[in-house]
Amino acid sequence: MRLHKGGKEMEVLHECLNVLVNGAILLFEFVGAVVIIAAGLRGVMEYVKQNPLTRLNLAKGMAMGLEFKLGSEILRTVIVREMSEILIVASIIALRAALTLLIHWEIKNEKAEQMEGME
Question: pTM of the full predicted structure?
Answer without folding.
Answer: 0.75
